[in-house]
Amino acid sequence: MKLLARHPVCAVLALLALVGCTHMNSSPLRTVAYVDLDRYLGRWYVIANIPYYLEKGKVASYDTYAKRPDGRLENIFTFRKGGFDAPEKSWHGIAWVTNPTSNAEWKVRFVWPLTSTYLVLELDPDYRWAVVGTPNRKLLWILARDRQLSAADYEHILGLIVAQGYDRNAIVPVPQPSL
After folding, report:
1. What is the DSSP string of 133-178?
2. Interatomic CA distance for residues 69 and 87, integer angstroms
3. 40: helix, coil or strand?
4. Pairing with 103, which of 36, 83, 119, 147 sits 20 to 30 Å away (CA)?
């Protein structure tokens, strides 16, 4: 337990491993038909999520994806803890596609050997926003290329997520600074 308390990334991954072992009580999630990885690369701001305990209190968070020479993806999660004036911190992980037909199913690892499943559930045709979740519906992230989404886009996305069996009340906005 002391190791988990001192190393938050280890605690996150242990939690994700445990969450991944739970029994799914609804139908399998539907991913998007295809993700163009070259278009998906880059920065995605976290607009809202179903947070696990290490995401609580984090603001101005975003994920950055980049291709690695070995064909996998670099996944950098950047955030501020407690407020916009807090220092920016990052966790570095790797990701790899597990379904090359769609590119919508990945494994993500921040600490070896623990991985979690990353499903691209919804994706704007212009790659302006995306929704990522885990197979058991315990975790979810609404991502966007800009720090803010319009109210209409946000409501549309929530409708899509609820149709996939997610609890709308569990989704929490992540504060982003307005620029």
Report:
1. E-TTSS-EEEEESSS---HHHHHHHHHHHHHTT--GGG-EE-----
2. 30
3. helix
4. 147
- Of 155, 90, 109, the closest CA to residue 129 belongs to 155
CATH architecture of 2-20+27-173: Beta Barrel (2.40)
Mean pLDDT of 63-85: 96
Q: How far apart are CA 46 and CA 86, in angstroms?
A: 17
Beta carbons of 90 and 77 less than 8 angstroms apart: yes
Neighbours of 155 (CB within 10 A): 11
The helix (run of H) or strand (run of E) holding residue 123 is strand 114-123
pTM: 0.84
End-to-end CA distance of the chain: 41
Domain spans, the chain: 2-20+27-173
Q: How far apart are CA 22 and CA 9, in angstroms?
A: 20
pLDDT in tens, 24-41: 446 899 999 999 999 999
CB atoms within 10 A of CB 47: 25
